[in-house]
Design goal:
The complex is a heterodimer of chains A (about 350) and B (about 250). Chain A is of the alpha/beta class. Chain A is built from 15 helices and 9 strands. The chains are: A alpha/beta (about 350), B mainly alpha (about 250). The structure holds protoporphyrin IX containing FE (HEM) (2 copies) and iron/sulfur cluster (2 copies). Chain B: Keywords: Cell membrane, Electron transport, Heme, Iron, Membrane, Metal-binding, Transmembrane, Transmembrane helix, Transport.
């Protein structure tokens, strides 16, 4: 077996200075919420551990995850991470193409068998034997299964790979299927979002590269460090929620004053993601900050859970759509009327009947 | 039990009362059979639960559809905060009460158990159920006398109260773990609930629907206990206030 390079070797070869390397280690520690005492530990690991290659596959997708990823806020982080992974296989980012690219894939799979990380963006459609997504002349699902078989762990980028997202929305004609329902025998880390935040993506990949283990996951398989709180828990409009101050319509006084967007359908209270703390585009803003409610893009099945401008889903039946409260009130009215009628008939029948008490 | 006529009071029955020495016959007073049915913990629990459900339904509705926005500084109000606080406080009372009531099913009398299952395999149960339905459809005049819950009441209580109430507790604590975090005890104990029900938003949705099931149940419950109290062969409301159920006749059917 060839001598395996360390991360540090790779970085130096990519023209990253020692100084930048140390800086990168402290940035990483900070991003992962670790104290400064971890910096030497990270540096040591990167200098001595053989580099873990990352293979990045693309299925049915819009490439927004890649777009997000290459916009990681800190240029240093971006450089380092890209140098660590673009070497291997990512058919939208890498220089080579066609047969040459597929050859690299085979080479890495063989050389690092059982040691590489597979990152999946998008998902495989299973209908018609997977013919709705063809990579290099073959259904994507075949490539996915083949590459997954030698992977140490799998990262499901974005809501597509994690949950199915828009291509799996009802009625899901291509039967787009999230990765964990196709690959059953590998540890899978879900990094949902449409797309996920760049810093979250780089944070996850850096953690795995430096510590050589999976980050701690929640019950659904999401890294706890980024997905253990809701948008609502750290939203800067939360004081207005607690006070009872809401935007009632997008052009009202409350909207101008920056009140809470709960009544116009904000899904912050049901969405686990880091937007309200990390924000987007180098921390510039996030949807709620620009006046629109969260649409819950990092939650399972968010396309199929009703309007983005209503809190709860309507129920439909007999061609009518109505909210739970409307149906409930109508039902309560009907039951009330029924009880009143029943009471009236009961009273009448009692008048006619001379009960046992009268004997 | 004796035939109805023998329940008419005799002169001897008045001995020792303030009517001692009077003739009993013209009083036309009858002796009624009374049974102690619901023990004090059940009664206390019933009214506590009723009160907590009223608070839960009102605050729950307001969590779903908050009142019109307040003006002024956010720091001078805590309206939604209080609504949620009341919901959670009442939720704790309801949930702890429910747990206590389960425990009492093991410690209390035989009627304390009726709330938690229906005797599905007993033919008698289905006959009584049909009888009650016929009474409510004005086909029959009277059903059998019952000491605990009648079969129809028991069925409604089991599905619309016991199971729905349990569902509200389970989904409620799962939603509560959104606030306390996945590593809190709520998160660890009830963390399976939301993925199982199709996610966080769906859990809100079903918790909200559960409220309407309970509201409809309470409307019907209050109507039927009042109606039965007036029209049936036994008293109802006293059974839930002082524990005693009185039978208006002792006919054996
Ligand atoms: C939110 C409101 C209420 C709820 C959730 C509720 C629930 C219940 C439950 C669960 C039982 C069964 C008790 C057991 O077996 O341990 C019960 C029985 C009873 N409740 Fe209520 N209740 C409510 C309101 C009321 C009100 C307002 C009244 C009075 C008018 C009432 C009168 C009774 C009576 C008389 C019984 C005994 C029924 C029987 O003997 O079969 N309840 N209720
Ligand atoms: C019979 C009992 C109950 C009723 C009728 C009830 C009703 C409701 C309703 C209607 C909502 C609003 C749902 C929405 O539109 O999103 C709600 C929310 C909630 N309920 Fe309950 N609930 C009950 C019991 C409980 C219990 C036992 C708990 C346990 C802690 C609980 C915890 C919650 C929580 C955490 C929320 C979400 C609050 C938020 O989003 O800020 N509920 N409840
Ligand atoms: S805007 Fe949305 S996330 Fe922010 S406090 Fe209101 S409901 Fe919660
Ligand atoms: S605020 Fe909500 S909808 Fe917007 S990106 Fe974040 S999780 Fe997605």
């Amino acid at each position: 077996m060839a001598v395996l390079e360390t991360f540090y070797d790779v970085m130096r070869r990519q023209g990253i200075t020692r100084r930048s390397f140390v800086k990168y280690c402290s940035l990483t520690a900070a991003a992962l919420g670790l104290g400064p005492e971890f910096v030497p530990q990270i540096a040591h690991a990167m200098e001595t551990k053989p580099r873990t290659p990352v293979l990045w596959l693309h299925g049915l997708e819009c490439t927004c995850c890649s777009e997000s990823f290459i916009r990681a806020a800190h240029p240093l982080v971006k450089d380092v991470i890209l140098s660590m992974i673009s070497l291997d296989y990512d058919d939208t980012l890498m220089a080579s193409a066609g047969h040459q690219a597929e050859a690299i894939l085979d080479e890495v799979m063989e050389k690092y068998h059982g040691n590489y990380i597979l990152a999946v963006e998008g998902n495989p459609p299973l209908n018609e034997d997977g013919m709705y997504c063809i990579i290099g002349g073959k259904p994507f699902v075949e490539q996915l299964k083949r590459v997954a078989s030698g992977a140490k762990a799998i990262i499901s980028w974005g809501s597509c790979a994690s949950y199915g997202c828009v291509q799996a929305a009802r009625p899901n004609p291509t039967q787009a299927t999230p990765v964990h329902k196709v690959i059953l025998d590998k540890p899978i880390i879900k990094v949902p979002g449409c797309p996920p935040i760049a810093e979250v993506m780089t944070g996850v990949i850096t953690y795995m590269q430096t510590f050589d283990r999976l980050p701690e996951l929640d019950r659904q398989g999401r890294p706890k460090m980024f997905y253990s709180q809701r948008i609502h828990d750290k939203c800067y409009r939360r004081p207005h929620f607690d006070a009872g101050q809401y935007v009632e319509a997008f052009d009202d006084e409350g909207a101008r004053k920056g009140y809470c967007l709960y009544k116009v359908g904000c899904k912050g209270p049901t969405t686990y993601n880091a937007c309200s703390t990390v924000r987007w585009n180098d921390g510039v803003s996030f949807p709620i900050q620009s006046g629109h409610g969260c649409i819950g893009c990092s939650e399972d099945g968010f396309w199929d859970k009703g309007s983005w401008y209503a809190r709860l889903q309507d129920v439909s039946g007999f061609g009518i759509e109505a909210s739970a409260d409307k149906v409930g009130l109508v039902a309560a009215g009907a039951v009330g009327a029924g009880l009143a009628a029943h009471a009236a008939i009961s009273a009448l029948s009692r008048v006619r009947y001379k009960g046992d008490d009268a004997q | 039990m004796s035939a109805p006529d023998s329940a008419i009071l005799t002169d001897g029955d008045l001995k020792g009362t303030n009517l001692d020495g009077l003739k009993a016959r013209p009083l036309r007073a009858r002796r009624l059979t009374t049974v102690y049915v619901y023990e004090a913990p059940v009664r206390l629990w019933h009214w506590m639960t009723a009160a907590s459900i009223v608070v839960l339904a009102v605050t729950g509705y307001l969590i779903g559809s908050p009142p019109p926005s307040l003006s002024g500084e956010a720091s001078s109000h805590f309206q939604m905060g209080w609504i949620r606080y009341l919901h959670f406080a009442a939720a704790w009372i309801f949930a702890v009460g429910f747990g206590g009531r389960v425990a009492w099913a093991f410690m209390g009398n035989v009627y304390a158990r009726e709330l938690f299952f229906i005797p599905f395999w007993k033919l008698e149960y289905w006959k009584e159920l049909l009888d009650e339905v016929l009474v409510y459809a004005f086909v029959k005049k009277h059903a059998k006398t019952v000491v605990g819950h009648n079969a129809l009441a028991r069925t409604a209580l089991f599905f619309c109260f016991t199971l729905t109430g349990l569902f509200m507790i389970v989904t409620g604590f799962a939603l509560y773990s959104d606030g306390t975090g996945i590593d809190s005890w709520e998160g660890r104990v009830f963390g399976w609930v939301m993925p199982w029900l199709g996610g966080n938003l769906s859990t809100h949705f079903l918790h909200h629907w559960g409220m309407w099931v309970i509201i409809l149940f309470v409307m019907i419950h209050v109507y039927t206990v009042s109606r039965e109290d007036i029209m049936s062969r036994q008293s109802l409301i006293s059974a839930m206030t002082n524990g005693y159920r009185t039978f208006r006749d002792d006919r054996p059917d």
